[in-house]
Specification:
- By secondary structure, this protein is of the alpha/beta class.
- It has 2 domains: about 1-135, 2-Layer Sandwich (Nucleotidyltransferase, domain 5), CATH 3.30.420; about 185-360, ATPase, nucleotide binding domain (Nucleotidyltransferase, domain 5, 2-Layer Sandwich).
- It is built from 14 helices and 13 strands.
- The protein has helices spanning about 50-65, 95-105, 110-125, 145-150, 155-160, 170-180, 230-255, 255-260, 265-270, 275-300, 310-315, 315-325, 335-340, 360-375; strands spanning about 1-5, 10-15, 25-30, 35-40, 45, 75-80, 90, 130-135, 190-195, 200-205, 205-210, 305-310, 355.
- The strands form 2 sheets. It has an 8-stranded mixed beta sheet with strand order 5-4-3-2-1-6-8-7, sandwiched between helices.
- Helix 9 (about 265-270) crosses helix 10.
- It starts with a strand and ends in a 9-residue tail after the last helix.
Length: about 375
């Protein structure tokens, strides 16, 4: 079996896959360091989890009690948010890889420390278990330099200030499944990962050539609580008036749909039905269309549109608005298919296939873990 681990600052979620890569169990510990809760399947209970080591120990014990002992786990795959400029593909965790993940902490201070804590905790709990790290930035390593570099002095670029892009695991998983869905890989794919965090990716020849997120997940589309693209001098003004921490809080946690419509959840905005809520939805769709034009230009055309993520998979109104905005590029959706969230949304004879591709990031991590572990072994991470 393959264990897939997604560790955050106060939670660890895992999924267990069998030898055929079918999901067999899921578990999580939330509120690590506080009023922790252990969830396994549909059951939840209080637990004592002061740190990631304790949380992972509880999860492994709960899985064993449910008939999935540690001895049956062949390897573990981890989602790691930032791989920087050197970790550009999934990698077996070695001392060197762990050090490189740690070196990326200044680029992702809210994520990489906790990703690394889970890797090290699992190494202590199950020392001989092979571990693989999959990086959310890696899929975008194929972007050309003109897409990655900001027009900044070389000294700042050398500090790592450049575009990286995120949601790479989602986009890689989507791209891997398109040939089976369409019979062949389209040459130019506009992929829309729409959720509380949202970004677009231009996929040409199966590789990312442009994406909307940049140095951090803040850039690009209007999101649940993130502002999306904003002028640098506006950021400096916010920092001058609210301090750096205050500006960061506004841009990452108090902006986006929340600021415009009063709620960060798209479902709540639809339910509210107020003018303010309608404006927030229109803002989200407008910027998705506007950034889509940029992605299409980066690819030199459009052969397929694929929606994924919570909003992309479940919000027919948003999909219809974005498709209408992309009519100039030959995009159209059939209303009835869109309303029932069909896998294929374009009408017969349409110039551009339009698909819903449900997110399957955990399975992709499991697949990559199997592939990597089958390769030559390395030195385990400390």
């Amino acid at each position: 079996m393959i264990l897939v681990v997604n560790a955050g600052s106060s939670s660890i979620k895992v999924a267990l896959f069998d030898a055929a890569l079918a999901p067999v169990a899921g578990a999580a510990v939330t509120e690590i360091g506080g009023a922790a809760r252990l969830r396994l399947g549909g059951q939840e209970r209080d637990c004592a989890a002061p740190d990631h080591d304790a949380a992972l120990g509880l999860i492994l014990s709960a899985l064993a009690a449910a008939g999935h002992p540690v001895a049956a786990i062949a390897a573990a795959g981890h989602r790691v948010v930032h791989g920087g400029g050197s970790l550009v593909r999934p990698a077996r965790v070695t001392e060197e890889v762990a050090a490189a993940i740690e070196a990326c902490i200044p680029l992702a201070p809210l994520h990489n420390p906790h990703n690394l804590a889970a890797i090290r905790a699992l190494a202590r709990l199950v020392p001989d278990l092979p571990q693989v790290a999959c990086f959310d930035t890696a899929f975008h390593a194929t972007n050309p330099d003109v897409a990655r570099r900001y027009a900044l002095p070389s000294s700042e670029t050398a500090r790592g200030i450049r575009r990286y892009g995120f949601h790479g695991i989602s986009f890689a998983s989507l791209a891997a499944r398109l040939p089976a869905l369409l019979g062949a890989m389209p040459e130019r794919v506009l992929a829309l990962h729409l959720g509380n965090g949202a970004s677009l990716c231009a996929i040409r020849g199966g590789q990312s050539v442009a994406t909307t997120m940049g140095y951090s997940p803040l850039d690009g589309l209007t999101m649940g609580t993130r502002a999306g693209s904003i002028d640098g001098n506006a950021v400096l003004r916010l920092a001058a008036e609210h301090g750096i921490e205050g500006a960061a809080r506004i841009l990452n946690h108090q902006s986006g749909l929340l600021a415009l419509g009063g709620a960060s959840d798209m479902r709540a905005l639809h339910a509210a039905g107020t003018e303010r809520a309608r404006f927030a939805i229109a803002h989200f769709c407008y910027w998705a269309v506007r950034h889509s034009g940029s992605m299409i230009a980066a690819m030199g055309g459009l052969d397929c549109v694929a929606f994924t993520g919570g909003i992309g998979e479940n919000d027919a109104e948003v999909r219809a608005a974005i498709a209408a905005g992309l009519a100039f590029a030959g995009v159209t959706v059939e209303p009835e298919a869109n309303a029932r969230h069909a896998a294929r949304l374009d009408p017969p004879g349409a110039a551009v296939p339009v698909l819903i591709v449900p997110a399957a990031e955990e399975r992709w991590i499991a697949e990559e873990t199997v592939r990597i572990v089958a390769g030559p072994p390395g030195r385990a991470a400390p």
